[in-house]
Design goal:
Blueprint: E1 8-17, E2 28-36, E3 39-43, H1 46-51, E4 54-59, E5 63-72, E6 77-84, E7 89-94, H2 100-149, E8 160-165, E9 176-180, E10 186-191, H3 196-200, E11 208-212, E12 215-216, H4 220-228, E13 233-239, H5 253-262, H6 273-288, E14 294-295
Antiparallel strand pairs: 1-2, 1-7, 2-3, 3-4, 5-6, 6-7, 8-13, 9-10, 9-14, 11-12, 11-13
């Protein structure tokens, strides 16, 4: 970056101590120095500065610190050192009434402040971008959840709404038990005698429960939670009974019995089906007490 692109803070002639291995020639060499908001620039003279021929540019980011050494009162000469981040130490002296040490320190502070502001803006922008991405992800996830969980009645053709009072204190709940099918659908297993579902009607065994209180029913546990969180009533979206189930009801003894009999060899007596049905009925009664069936209280 040239000096013409940055406002000049101060400029003047200074002398730089020359580091020589052999003590030949003068120990100090005159330079024309220009300080701006970006760097400390050295020219061979004022004419070189006008021509734009910079001998060396020392960026402010490379300056570690500026230290005043001493001042000669008799000659009014000020000595100071400039230390760089690369470990270089340069000694200067000047006789002009320019506070080079103070001016360089002030520009260093301004430069560091600008860098802090830039870093803060970059960090803030990255945080905002991250938050924006998270918000968009959250919104898309929320929209997906709303689309997948909330049921639009216009699209639920062939379904009917049934509002059942939730008699939790009486022990009957909404008066039904449910069971999941192999394809993930939740259907009514039994309608309890004397319960709200039987008194109001509209619900029969094998009816599919599509939604509860506007939420799509995806599992027995989810339906149980909705009913538990509804102290007064539960609104169900019911699809009429399914004639052909993906799989038979686990506690249907006759279906299990006939399927088992089809695989029996001929020499096994299959006439005594009464005892076999009793055995299946006993096993079915045990299965009804399993967690797959829920009675809502």
């Amino acid at each position: 970056m040239g000096a013409e692109n940055t406002a000049t803070v101060c400029e003047g002639s200074i002398e730089k101590k020359v580091d020589r291995r052999l003590p030949i020639g003068p120990a100090w060499k005159r330079k024309f120095c220009v300080l701006d908001g970006e760097a400390l620039r050295f020219y061979g003279g004022s004419s070189s500065k006008r021509e734009g021929r910079c001998h060396r540019t020392l960026p402010l980011c490379h300056i570690k610190k500026v230290v005043k050494i001493h001042e000669e009162g008799s000659t009014n000469t000020r000595y100071f050192n400039v230390e760089t981040e690369q470990g270089e130490t340069m000694m200067f002296r000047c006789k002009e009434r320019i506070g080079w040490v103070a001016q360089i320190q002030i520009q260093l502070i301004h430069y560091k402040n600008r860098q802090d502001i830039i870093r803060y803006k970059q960090l803030n922008n990255s945080i905002l971008a991250t938050e924006g991405a998270m918000q968009r992800l959250r919104s898309s996830s929320l929209n997906h959840d709303v689309t997948s969980n909330h049921v639009i009645e216009g699209r639920s053709r062939g379904c009917r709404r049934v509002e059942l009072p939730n008699h939790r204190n009486s022990g009957t709940g909404i008066g039904i038990t449910v069971i999941p099918l192999s394809d993930g659908k939740i259907v009514v297993n039994r309608v309890l005698d004397g319960g709200p579902a039987m008194r109001l009607g509209g619900i029969n065994p094998r009816d599919q429960i599509v939604a509860a209180n506007g939420l799509r029913v995806t599992s027995v546990e989810m339906l149980s939670e909705v009913v538990r969180d509804s102290p007064e009533s539960v609104t169900l979206l019911i699809k009429p009974r399914i004639c052909k189930s993906p799989s038979p009801v686990p506690d249907d003894p006759k279906a299990l019995l006939h399927k088992d009999m089809e695989n029996k060899p001929e020499y096994i007596n299959t006439d005594d089906r009464t005892s076999l049905e009793k055995g299946f009925l006993r096993r079915s009664s045990r299965e009804r007490s399993s967690p797959r069936h829920f009675k809502f209280f």
